[in-house]
Amino acid sequence: MGKIVIVYWSGTGNTEAMAGAILEGAKSQNSDTKSFNVSQISADEAANYDTLILGCPAMGAEVLEEAEFEPFFTDLESKLNGKNVALFGSFGWGDGEWMRIWEKRVTDAGGKLINGEGLMIHETPDDEGLAKCREFGEIAAKI
Fold first, then answer.
1. Domain span at residue 39?
2. CATH of the domain at 15
3. Residues sharing a CB contact under 8 Å with residue 68, sequence separation 6 or more, in sequence order
4. With contact defined as beta carbons under 8 Å apart, do 143 and 114 qualify?
5. pTM value?
6. Which of 87, 86, 85, 88 is nearest to 125 (CA)?
7. What sign for the dihedral angle of Cα 116, 30, 2, 6?
8. Under DSSP, is residue 37 helix (H, G, I), strand (E, B) or coil?
């Protein structure tokens, strides 16, 4: 079992709540799992982990948050080859286009997308959504 990191950005707290539940699930499989707000870690530091669990909500016209997360991910993108990557985020509108684009960027960079797709939760995660997040963390940590 390799080193696992969760890196996320959250504006309203929804994606942060998802990250907390994912951390619980991941720690149940690998107690050394780390979690950081995107402002607390560089792309180079994140690239030192074997499994990257990345979280960002849909923003604007279904894009990644542009001030902090997009620059972080752009720097990280070239370092994803051969890495296990799981994606998650909340959204309030649209049909998940931001996630599909993000998934393609990961696979185009040579990352191995865990579960084949990201985890999306509409708005604030309820108990069922948080349970999905914990399960998502467990699955990602077992890779």
1. 4-142
2. 3.40.50.360
3. 9, 38, 39
4. yes
5. 0.97
6. 88
7. positive
8. strand
Our count of domains for the chain comes to 1
Which DSSP letter does residue 10 get?
A: -
pLDDT (tens, 9 = 90+) of the chain, 143 residues, equals 689 999 999 999 999 999 999 999 999 999 999 999 999 999 999 999 999 999 999 999 899 999 999 999 999 999 999 999 999 999 998 899 999 999 999 999 999 999 899 999 999 999 999 999 999 999 999 98
* Residues 92 and 122: beta-carbon distance below 8 Å: yes
Q: What whole-number distance in Å separates Cα of residue 75 and Cα of residue 33?
A: 22
Q: What is the DSSP letter of 59?
A: B
User: What type of residue is 60?
Assistant: G
SS3 44: helix
